[in-house]
Amino acid sequence: MTLTNPRSSQINTADIEQTAFASNAQVDTLQSNLSSFASYSNSTFSTGPSFTAGVLFDEPIKLIPSENANSAYATSNVISIVTPVNSRDNLLVYLDGLLQHPDTYIVNGATLQFANVEPIPSSLTVGVRYLQTSNLVVDTATANSIVGANGMLAWDYESKRLRVYDGSTVGGLYANAVQSVFTSQGSVSGYTSGGGNPVGKDTIDKFSFSSDGNATDVGNLSTTIRQWVAGQSSSAHGYTSGGTPPITDTIDKFPFSADSNATDVGNLTLARWFSAGQSSTASGYSSGGGAPTIDNTIDKFPFAVDGNATDVGDLTVSRQGTAGHSSSISGYTSGGTPGPLNTVDKFPFSSDANATDVGDLTQARFYNTGQSSATNGYSSSGFAPGTVNTIDKFPFAADSSATDVGDLSQARYGPAGQSSTTSGYTSGGYNAPTVVDTIDKFPFAADGNASDVGNLTQARQHSAGQQI
Fold first, then answer.
1. Same domain, 84 and 216
2. Which of 121, 130, 199, 274 is placed for a possible disulfide with 320 were both Cys, Cβ 3.0 to 4.6 Å?
């Protein structure tokens, strides 16, 4: 690369002021820097003390497009990455191609969380590049001179993808793009499906997350009488599994994109009621329940295609009447009966395996319901015996017991639980001697009590909760 040097002897200084031109020394320095850059651009980046050949391509780049393009925000400020790492300095993280400082995010295994408390705006795309393998640590401050042109990232505005230059391929190489949608928090609506008062209902209610208000009836389950059900959520559909009467193994699916009835798309491995529901990015889970014998089975069914569930593990104890929670990498089941129990179980999404006991609720109870923020699981309501209004919180980042962080607006058991990106919701339930239609909301950002923000279309208990 050559830079033309406009020396003052080549121009008429009477036409233009001398100060408009760089001095000879400045131009020569710039030329020297450009020559150095040319040398770097033809070198490789695998020569540093912590690098080995090809290590920068050890993992693919993962693009995580925000979902819900028509809404203000995506689902979360937490995303899943391809491979767990032990340091945030092992990654280069981009928002629409703009490199982020490592201080703006934290990494916990396969979970990356941005420091901002609000979800990622839906117009942005997150790009993650692995600097090297997960068992090593890179100091990004000293690695900058090594990470040169080979492996350099460029944003392609036409294809909306990151381009990786490998030093020889004309036009560069495109990284693999994989979408990751975490569905345990929604940004648009909460749903309450099924339930009883005292006869089972098939109603699917929907209420807004963006404003407090009453729910509307948007559809029906595939059977007219259905309560004691579990709920799961993909990025496009709500699922309602199990229930009674009679005790069923049905998995129903209804769309989020349009108000519509549910269809029967598969079966659990055994008919049961009072199970807990969890959701990963790819699958729905139903854990525990009565069949009618109390069971410890963890079932998994796919979101990508309609199909039956498979038995992928067991809870630590057989139980029913539990609450379900989901982090980006694990499912949780809390409380239950016989007992009552205070056990908090955890099982992995990445592999089929049994659950482990990782903590306790503040009080043993059953018929409680679950909510999930990006960082914590919540267990609200229940029967201890005696109806309770407790909101418990336990962390996802470490195995630990729960703490009491607030109260519902009224004591009850058997409600449905929903989660937005900022708040937990508890809808319906039984507050002796009355079945209620109350929709409560409590904040994730700070510990506090719930407030009554609306009503279901029908008072009912033992419903399933979903969200988008």
1. no
2. 274
